[in-house]
Each structure stands twice: as C-alpha cells, then as structure tokens.
C-alpha cells in the first residue's frame, strides 16, 4: 500500500510501503456507528469487547491465518477502545484470544507456550530454532549492578546480539511442529506489565525477546523508548521472526524496507532469504507478507492521525531510541 497523504515538514519514509496490507480505504467511507450483534453496544468498525466486526465490515475484512495460537493478557486498566490487542482478535479470530488479568489460564499443563517479554533468561526466536545465536551479557546488558533485564531493559537488541554461524538445521517445519504452539503477550504499559510478570502463572513461562523495531504507534507512553511496540506491532514482529526462521524470507518481498527493524534482524535473516515467486503467499512458503494484514486497522489509523498532525510534532515519534 502507498501513503495517501503527502508528508508535511521534514520528509519521512512511510513505514508500510510495499507491505501486503489489503486496501483499507473502505474504513474511510463508513459513516455512523453500528450495534454489535453480540452485546448490542454501538461501535464504529468492530466491537472491542466481543472482538467482532460490525455492520458491513463483517464481509469485507481480510482474515489472517496464523501458524500458532496467540494469547493476550490485558491489564484491567488498559482502555479497551485504545488498545491494539483487539485488532489481532478481530482479524485472526481462530488463533487469538484475549484475557483480562488476573483471570488468565493455567499454562503449566500445556507444552510449547512462551511469553514475549524481556527477562534475564530470555531466548531469541532464532534460538528457539536451535540456530547458533547468543546474547552477549558480559556487561549485564549495560545495566547498573543489581538490576536485570526483566525490570530495567534499556539496551537495544542490536547491541546484544552475538555471533552466529550460517550453517542451519535441516529440519522441515510445518504448522504442526513449530517450537512454539502458543505465544503469550502482555497488553499494558511497561510498569503494569512488570506487575503481571510477577504472577507465578506468568513468570513460570519461558520468555522470548524480539529483535528491535521502531514503533509507529502514535500514542505516547511516558518513559518508554521508541522501540517499545504496540501490542499488534509486537505480534506481527514475532510472527515475522517465527516465519522467517521456519520457512525463510522471499527475496522479492520489500515490505520490510521502511519498518526500521534493527540491523541484527537483517543479518540473521540474510542466510534464510531465498528466491521465490513474487506472488507466492502460501502459508508455509518464504515470508511474503502472510501476516501483514494484522496491521490493517493500525495502518489505517496511522494514516488518519497523519492527516491531522505533522509526524515530527508528535511526541511519540520523538522518544529516545
């Protein structure tokens, strides 16, 4: 998709250019609100309590099939209408479920569950696939003595990614044998997420840390760096990393050009990049935008915000990197 509005002020790159996001201009034509068929509440595009589209959108939205299950643990103080977690549940209803803390499942009896959260023992996605990648923790991630990554992460991932060997395992992956069957995300502010992580049901999960990517979220969160992603961005990033490590990256796909993902990701994905047809979007083929439609609502709102506000004036985009 292309940017519908010419940028004002300092030139900038449109982050979603060349991504395989369905035309979302229909959202700009919808007038008024519609009642949710489940709870009868008045909503614009979808019900953020029941996670279903309303009105004519029920037959127009792109549905996304994911290779694994996604659970989102939402803090009870997180405002439903402002959270991007609902985007995932609406666009991938068969693979995403949302729980409000403290009413969460017991994951102790389920295999293959990981928590996407930085901790002192976090693995990277390549490590889940047994690739020879390690985190350099010789300087305690650059943190003061007495602190650890789970409570005070401030270093960028491209500063702590270690060396890797190009030789990869020859295992053939399918949707049924990925090293992760369910990924759990925490939908809250950074300070709230640490409280949820303290819960023994959550803390017992194996943790995974993502490669850094600059957030395009327009809402400012005090004290958070620019790479603190919105929930839907984090889900997209995790699925992207999982897919590339399982099935590779289509050399023809240009959707990552402006996403501002750390150089470490590109270094790790380089040996997994393969030549494939430019129009190939099969589920278990090299990544070619299979999960880009998770950003369908997010990209539309980004465009709307930038129609009324100059990008360089928004505090969210001036946070430290």
UniProtKB/TrEMBL annotation:
Keyword Nucleus attributed: yes
Subcellular location: Nucleus
Any single biological process term in GO: tRNA modification
EC number: 2.5.1.25
InterPro entries in the cross-refs: DTW (IPR005636), tRNA_Mod/Golgi_Maint (IPR051521)
Domain DTW: 43-310
Keyword hit for Heme: no
Keywords: Nucleus, S-adenosyl-L-methionine, Transferase, tRNA processing
Cellular-component GO terms for this entry: nucleus
GO molecular function per UniProt: tRNA-uridine aminocarboxypropyltransferase activity
Domain of life (superkingdom): Eukaryota
Pfam families registered for this protein in UniProt: DTW (PF03942)
Catalytic activity, reaction form: a uridine in tRNA + S-adenosyl-L-methionine = a 3-[(3S)-3-amino-3-carboxypropyl]uridine in tRNA + S-methyl-5'-thioadenosine + H(+)
Family: Belongs to the TDD superfamily. DTWD1 family.
Function field: Catalyzes the formation of 3-(3-amino-3-carboxypropyl)uridine (acp3U) at position 20 in the D-loop of several cytoplasmic tRNAs (acp3U(20)).
Name listed for the protein in its UniProt record: tRNA-uridine aminocarboxypropyltransferase 1
Species, as recorded: Drosophila hydei
